[in-house]
Design goal:
By secondary structure, the protein is of the alpha/beta class. Helices cover 38% and strands 14% of the residues. The chain is built from eleven helices and 13 strands. Bound molecules: pyridoxal-5'-phosphate (PLP).
Length: 368
């Protein structure tokens, strides 16, 4: 019997010839390509998660709390202490990664015949989310240094009148943080078209001192949404927990599109346990930020061009042949990220030892 090929199936037209998301998953010495925390989950957090999951397991014959009440309360308390903004449990929504949360947003506010806009180079998933909900994707522009200017962002939103606009701050893959006047200008420009404005703060905890979270702007802005994740700063990428804060009416909209009981009891248990240990998990965030700043300093000293970063990674240019540099690093057991920007690579800030290994290997390559 001959195997059925994908092209034999009655696939949706717009999916023909498309590629799935596929950052390489290789097991090498230093995995610095998808911005995970490279520190292991601390033993006390592992124990707490195991205890909570064990308790949850006793009731797995029942559906989980559809409203993830305990988790929402803890996420609200965490965001309040992290951002200084007063965030209530009714403002919180969560899903299996902020990827799912973003899908919920687009299912509720975009969809067929509607448009989704973001500003490349940015997170490569945004056009894919749009495609998945049958929306048209609009690629805005940003300046040469990847910064965004309030007037320019406002003008682009007024010109395109998208249904949803996604700002990414700090931006992946460039590390660029947005000042809040950009978010304010985007929101004001979106008033006329009633555009939902989403700020993806997946890397929010890594922001430089003095940079404020868009969470501080939610008050009085019912179409503003701020998404966060436990995948990066919380060292819980494998747990698949993302969340957002917005006006309570927004979370009511998302209830209309989520699948029933989308957040498993095991996920809720793991997330609440990790949140109880937010403080010790954040100790590693400080160490990672030091390595991030060290990467910028040392890459500059090597004659390369790193961009300022508010995230846990650094984008750098100035490479004569980025793919060759990437391959040299991989041959040394160091996996970083190739990006769609000519002559550039992106590296995650790992432990001090990983950062040293990366810098040494790259130095050897450049001198070789
Ligand atoms: C890593 C990342 C996320 C997180 O996705 P999860 O589904 O929460 O793991 C979201 N947005 C951006 C820009 C990211 O880089």
């Amino acid at each position: 019997m001959t195997e059925t090929q994908l092209s034999d199936l009655p696939l949706r037209d717009e999916l023909h010839g498309q590629q799935p998301y596929g950052a390489p998953q290789l097991s090498v010495r230093a995995m610095l390509n998808v911005n995970e925390t490279t520190y292991d989950v601390p033993a006390e957090v592992v124990d707490a998660i195991a205890r909570e999951v064990r308790t949850a397991a006793q009731s797995l014959n029942r559906y989980p709390d559809r409203e993830f009440t305990a988790l929402r309360r803890k996420l609200a308390a965490y965001l309040t202490s992290e951002s200084g903004a007063e965030i209530a449990a009714e403002q919180i929504w969560a899903g299996n990664g902020s990827n799912e949360v973003m899908q919920h947003i687009l299912q509720a506010f975009a969809g067929p015949g509607r448009t989704v806009m973001s500003f490349p180079p940015t997170y490569s998933m945004y056009p894919l989310y749009a495609r998945g909900v049958y929306s048209e994707y609009i690629a805005g522009t940003r300046s040469e240094d990847f910064a965004q200017d309030p007037d320019d962002v406002a003008a682009q939103i007024r010109a395109h009148r998208p249904h949803v606009v996604i700002l990414c701050s700090p931006n992946n893959p460039t590390g660029t943080a947005l000042s809040l006047d950009v978010v304010a200008a985007a929101y004001d420009a979106a008033q006329d078209s009633q555009t939902m404005v989403v700020v993806d703060e997946a890397y929010g905890e890594f922001r430089q001192p003095g940079t404020l979270s868009a969470l501080t702007m939610l008050e009085g802005r019912p179409r503003l949404v701020v998404t966060r994740t436990m995948s990066k700063a919380f060292a819980l990428a494998g747990g698949r927990i993302g969340y957002l804060a917005a006006a309570p009416a927004v979370t009511d909209a998302l209830r209309l599109v989520r699948l029933p009981y989308h957040l498993s009891a095991v996920t809720q248990a793991a997330a609440t346990a990790a949140l109880d240990h937010a403080e010790s998990l954040m100790a590693n965030v400080e160490r990672i930020k030091q390595q991030r700043d060290r990467l910028v300093t040392e890459l500059t000293a090597m004659g390369l061009r790193p961009y300022p970063s508010d995230a846990n990674f650094v984008l750098f240019g100035g490479l004569p042949d980025a793919h060759r540099a990437w391959q040299h690093l991989l041959d040394d057991g160091i996996l970083i990220r190739e990006v769609a920007i000519e002559g550039h690579l992106r590296v995650t800030a790992g432990t001090e030892a990983e950062t040293t290994d990366f810098l040494n290997s790259l130095r050897t390559h450049l001198n070789g």
